Amino acid sequence: MRGVSRGSKPPPAGLTARNHDGTELERVRAHMAQVLPAGAKRKAFRFAAYKAESVKKRLEELFHGKCAYCESLYASQAPVDVEHYRPKGRVEGETTHPGYWWLAAEWTNLLPSCLDCNRRRKQVVPVVSADLTVLQQRMKTGKQDAFPIAGSRAGREVDDILAERAVLLDPTRDDPDQHIAFWLDDDRASGVAYPVSGTTPKVPTVPLAVENTADVAGDAGRTGVSVRGAVSIQVYGLNRLRLVQERARLLQQLRFLEGVFLDIGDVSQSLAILNIEAPQTQLTDATDRLDRLQVRILDQMKLLAEPEAPHSAVAQAYLRDFRKRVLSLPPGGHP
Ligand SMILES: [Zn+2]
User: Ligand 1 mean position to 128 CA, how many Å?
Assistant: First the structure.
């Protein structure tokens, strides 16, 4: 997951489009205010504004065609799922909650999501043990209507949603790097997402592999890792086997580029101090070319961490680490 700013443009027009009964928000307000005969069940409102083309287009621009949670590019044949961060029709585990219907057409509540992050289904996820043995386990992940909170639940339009203290991370409001890290080492846990802790772990502490988010949160609290990170990893399924494999491949590519970068640096240095019978200009020319080659390799590494690149958060984490280890420059500094 990577932080994204929604910018200052007004919300997409489709969200506030009117028909003869007003905007969708006005219509759903009227629908929810209808007094029903005793025992009658309120019909579900058919929300549609969030599916407007203008909404999909803006989300596509902001997130570069990637899922807001897992940073996968949506398959070209699969249309984007416009996801409600706060679920619009019901809330998991809250039988009397009507859902956050007043946020169904609210721009800041909409995110693009892939099917795997959005829908609850069985996935294979890794369980990392203390000796870095990675076992595979099948469990249900996917957000669906989940919206765990640490504060008090907003049940009406007038309630303060900030008082809820949402547990799930929202890449447009939160800085995911404060809560979720990626295991960068070249071992069996390579590419695994794990909750950030105050100390540098020897093995990634992945969330307790259970489907109950309260248990995941309790376990994270006890082990001193980010509760929001742990629950988000579990609910969005950020350690689905395919995702971990893709991140591991990306890390392998970065390690390869780093190796070539370092080798070129070594050759360049030994050339510069060699006492050979070549004219100084030829020698300088050779080392200059090698230095330029190093810059091109660095550019290639940085491309993998650009906002457009799939799984760029893991590449960003690798580059931060690389700068510390190899370039000794502050993050964001140019070599
Ligand atoms: Zn996803």
Answer: 22
Q: How many helices (H) and strands (E) does the chain have?
A: 8, 8
CA of 1 to the centre of ligand 1 (A): 9
CA distance 241 to 237: 9
Q: What is the pLDDT of residues 49-94, one digit of tens each?
A: 999 999 999 999 999 999 999 999 976 556 778 999 999 999 999 9
Ligand 1 mean position to 325 CA, how many Å? 31
User: Within 10 A of 150 (CB to CB), how many other CB atoms are there?
Assistant: 12
Q: What percent of the chain has pLDDT over 90?
A: 62
SS3 56: helix
Q: How far is the CA of 65 from the centre of ligand 1 (A)?
A: 11
- Residue range 279-290, pLDDT digits in tens: 777 778 888 888
Judge contact between 220 and 155, C-beta under 8 A: no
Separation between Cα atoms, residue 27 and residue 21, nearest integer Å: 6
* Calpha distance 10→210 (Å, rounded): 40
Give dist(CA 210, CA 313) in Å, integer.
25
Q: Is 121 helix (H, G, I), strand (E, B) or coil?
A: strand
Q: What is the DSSP string of 258-315?
A: HHHHHHHHHHHHHHHH---SS-HHHHHHHHHHHHHHHHHHHHHHHHTTSTTSTTHHHH
Q: How does strand 121-128 pair with strand 110-113?
A: unpaired
CA distance 146 to 8: 29
pLDDT tier at 123 (50, 70, 90 boundaries)? confident
